[in-house]
Amino acid sequence: MAVFGYRGTDRDGRVSEGVVEATGEGAACDRLREKGLLPIRVWPASGPAAISSHAAASGTSRNSGARRDLLPFLQGLHTLLRAGIPVDRGLEMLADLFRDKPMGVVAGALLGEVRAGSSLSEAMMKAPGAPFDRFTVQMVNAGAATGRMEEALDQTWRFLERSREFRSSVAGALIYPAILLVACVLSVVLMLTFVIPKFAGVFAASRVVLPLPTRIVIAASEFLKEDGLWLLGVLVVAGFAASALLGRPEFRRDWDRAKFRWPFLGDVITSIETSRVLWSLSSLLSGGVPILSAFVIAREVSGNVAVREGMEAARLKIQGGGKVGRSLAETTPFPEMAIRMISVGEETGRLEEMLSSVAETYEANARRTLSRFLVILEPAMILLLGGLVGFIVASVFLAIFRLNEMPL
Q1: How many angstroms separate the CA atoms of 100 and 102, rounded?
Q2: Residues of each domain in the chain carrying CATH 1.20.81.30
Q3: Sheet containing 15-22: which strands, arranged edge to edge?
Q4: Which CATH fold would you assign to the domain 174-408?
Q5: Which of 268, 265, 273 shows the shortest CA–CA distance to 299?
Q6: Are 405 and 397 in contact (CB under 8 A)?
Q7: pLDDT in tens, the chain (408 residues)
Q8: CATH number for the 2-158 domain, one of 1.10.443.10, 3.40.220.10, 3.30.1360.30, 1.20.81.30?
């Protein structure tokens, strides 16, 4: 039996909303009439009671769908509250706006919880599919506590939008090199497994002494044909072993610290982590979240264990009376210039603004550094692909020339 949301009116003209179980929309209308309600509108699965059954039916697809609509939802809620519309009425309007999307179910659940007496942040923690992360919940909670809900929502969706846009730009920049790498590997493997063996048979029948490059290529071809599956198995086992090692906290910590010293990519990773954490910290502090709580939430933004442990150590130092800049300098891998700018902002009483400025600076630096790296990487991969293919072709021609030199 399906669950339907409804909006109806009783004989006295009072409008009410809720959910009803029925086999179809027509049956739902009939059940409402039996309750003495005149249906105004009935729609599938848009109320709080519909959440569990619908979420169970849709599984993880609902979670990802709700997260895709998270930014428009937060932006819409911010706009409605800024226009003076109460929270429950705003959620009602958003439930109607997103009624055919997963976020419509989430909005319906939030509406039910809020009308039942829960705060908006509490309702977000209970939302089906968990579309709201800890950062969003804490920002909303701080906004409600400080009476700056509109500002908190504005900070939240802007931070999430910036983070999503930055991730998309980085992923987009890496697509072309990834395609080149796959093309390089496939081209070489196909040539060694299908093309070279045909020439190898001809060369073997001629009994001519082959040049060294040709012998190398033929040996590689035979290895791939005879032991290619073994090689693939070794690579798979090595991948699982690496994954198991990274699952150990001490190894993962050393690995994440080593990332900051990688050639070329180390600067990119440092800039990305610095920007990501400081943007989060700036948004949280600007939204009214206490500094110690802000450090706890901001560290979760990073996937780097070294950064997360450093942020926790810095929080403990600040809790003991230490300054923000000095605490970050002693515990995190953030660049020295970033630390100095943060210390200046702390001394001048403009910490939130300085954190935002530093985050913006290092985000731009990450883009520039990644762009320079790709400028070098792309032609290098093209040269590598051309060199490998050229070596294979040249080895074949050298053998053919050796055959032509044989006396008839």
Answers
A1: 7
A2: 2-158, 174-408
A3: 15-22, 2-9, 38-44
A4: Receptor-associated Protein (1.20.81)
A5: 273
A6: no
A7: 566 777 666 665 565 666 677 777 778 778 877 887 766 667 764 343 343 334 333 343 445 556 678 888 888 888 888 888 888 888 988 888 888 888 888 888 898 888 888 888 888 888 888 888 878 887 888 888 777 888 888 888 888 888 888 878 878 878 888 888 888 888 888 888 888 888 888 888 777 788 888 889 998 888 888 887 888 888 899 988 888 888 888 888 888 888 888 887 888 889 888 988 898 888 888 878 888 888 888 887 888 888 988 998 999 999 999 999 999 999 999 999 999 999 999 999 899 889 989 988 998 888 888 888 888 888 888 888 888 888 888 988 888 888 776 655
A8: 1.20.81.30
Residue type, 231: L
